[in-house]
Request: fold
Amino acid sequence: MIHISKLVVRSYECDSYSHVNNAVYLNYLEYARMAFLKDNGFDYKKFVSLGYAIIVVRIAIDYKLSAVLYDELTIETQPVKRRKASGTFLQRILKDGNLVAEAEVTWAVLNAQGRPSPVPQEFEIPALNPAN
Amino acid sequence: MIHISKLVVRSYECDSYSHVNNAVYLNYLEYARMAFLKDNGFDYKKFVSLGYAIIVVRIAIDYKLSAVLYDELTIETQPVKRRKASGTFLQRILKDGNLVAEAEVTWAVLNAQGRPSPVPQEFEIPALNPAN
Amino acid sequence: MIHISKLVVRSYECDSYSHVNNAVYLNYLEYARMAFLKDNGFDYKKFVSLGYAIIVVRIAIDYKLSAVLYDELTIETQPVKRRKASGTFLQRILKDGNLVAEAEVTWAVLNAQGRPSPVPQEFEIPALNPAN
Amino acid sequence: MIHISKLVVRSYECDSYSHVNNAVYLNYLEYARMAFLKDNGFDYKKFVSLGYAIIVVRIAIDYKLSAVLYDELTIETQPVKRRKASGTFLQRILKDGNLVAEAEVTWAVLNAQGRPSPVPQEFEIPALNPAN
Reply:
């Protein structure tokens, strides 16, 4: 139910406090959402080739702990809301079981004309919907 | 009352949709907050040299419009909440008067021991407090 | 003859030594080359819309001095070699007249099929050629 | 003799051509050099805590092929020159055995006063020297 990604903090991701820069966490979250889609059978390259896009419309992220060089991070991704043309993931970044950051990320689909669109039937996957 | 920063979108800030990447907006907001502090007389380099840090504890950002190469962006920054050791900015990114993104950013101060701390008296500036 | 760009170092461009990260200089150089093209009348958006691309095939960069937060950098860009389908820029990054980094950057043109191509006639500009 | 690192291209590393941005390759190379040091027993955190720094003084990189989302890259790192206070790595980035980019990276050591320094005896490792 909860998708797990793992990554290790790289040197160029750290800022002048030697901590992972705030914006970099958004990269990590994007990385984990892409892995979520891939591991759940969502054909992203085909989706894009048909002119569709998944965009992020809102991110609310709470920073709890700093991460530093070589920290091994676990990113949990799970759907918590779903509408026809959009949805929300809860994503949690952890190190050694402690919460580094927690985010709610709301996505939406645009069609080739750049307008909001339901997820096309062939790309609909159960993993986008919250468990009951 | 509202601080204004301006910047122009650079090529390397755009992703494979040719849009400014979501994480890059957090860089823009950080840039604008640093300019806010500087223009309001906050001595950031001294602050850091004394071991203090301003950290971001929460960002809630709504993405409204895409920005692309060479867009001239205006970033409005204003304080909307204030507590002794923390506060919240409302930041709005605009192009041609249209809202590109809007964010609430909550900051806190850490002392040299890494613990929450009030803003030290010599660094207290009126601009950190919301207008009445 | 020598094109000048200016920029100021931003907080999120600094690494854990508080210096501008090595890779960020390549962004600065790209920024300056884009400004060079724009200021010399090269219609980059049209060029891309026709399927052409300017790619970088080689960069040789010497790092001389560190740049830090708020440094005001000047970037000089000038063509030093030219062939039909490629060319080389010399780019120098300076602060207060001192050399921060110096790079030779060799570019080439690809057509819509991804193959090396001469600069199309309508995009040929004198500024791409070294002065005699 | 040749150190191997592996990584997979992430979405936020791609530019508006959907290719890995040129500057990002320098991040990849830094990642591989850090892995090289770590895997060869160089205690980087201690080194930094004593005030030393390894800086890059020159990079000459040739770009051969584009890398795109999800490409699995192999980075080979090997020393090719060595002097007391500096040295040069040859680094090659490959996908499926094909050369994506090749770089010569020259490093130097600075002491706590920011001056060029030999590698301190306790941090000297054979891996920094080219094989005969």
